[in-house]
Amino acid sequence: MRRILSDKITDAVKEMCILANCNLDNSILESLEDAKQKKQSSSALGALDSIIKNAQIAKNRQIPICQDTGMAVFFVKIGKNVFIEGDNLDLAIEKGVSAGYTEGFLRKSIVADPLFRENTNDNTPPVIHYSFNDSDKIEITFLPKGFGSENKSALKMLNPSDGRDGIIDFVTDTVKKAGASPCPPIIVGVGIGGNFEKCAELSKFALARSIDIPNQNPYYAQLEGELLARINDLGIGPQGYGGETTALGVNIEVYPTHIAGLPVAVNISCHATRHQTVII
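Above: the chain's sequence. Below: its structure in token form.
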């Protein structure tokens, strides 16, 4: 049994909150550069230049890429041979979020109640998804998810007979309805299978995978490519100015489902799709 002090987890989460909000994934930066070589309007090319310059300034000065530093979302894999000493894991992570957003001067965007709307003043509580494995480590993946894009996400309980074409139509229509609102070029996370809540979780987890890493299943890797092509054919373009780059990537995650269902969730994320992973 391996012991891990909760303070170590808190410190790691604090650092992740700051780093993720100030540093864009290399796969996204490379895709933004590639997009400049495609057919875009002059305004779209200007938007791409501004997006890239903004990311470079954020990295060099270690300031947030976007003013919306998001709701803190975590995917945590816990080894069965780990014992956490001190605070429980929920509290250790929450303390890290509080410290990261406060000491990192990141915007605090969370309200304690969805209707009464009083700010918690430290961006807590986070949303945490747990899973377990046979290791003696804890793997923590952090996604600060802004709501300009989150608000354009969607979920639909398709019929099994809708199949592949139904999935493609639903994902494409969701992006079309979103238009320029989620600050394209976007990254699209797609969850297929499970049930109502599981497919939504899958679509969020899909955004934690770099867009230069396709799905391990060749069938779904091919579907990712087809969806990306269909989305970019919409012509919305960077910041809605038109062109061939509405999306930089589509990531799909799947899970077994019921014989009577085909749940599909689409989690849209802006070009500032941020994530960090640490293993303790």
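The longest helix spans residues 42-61.
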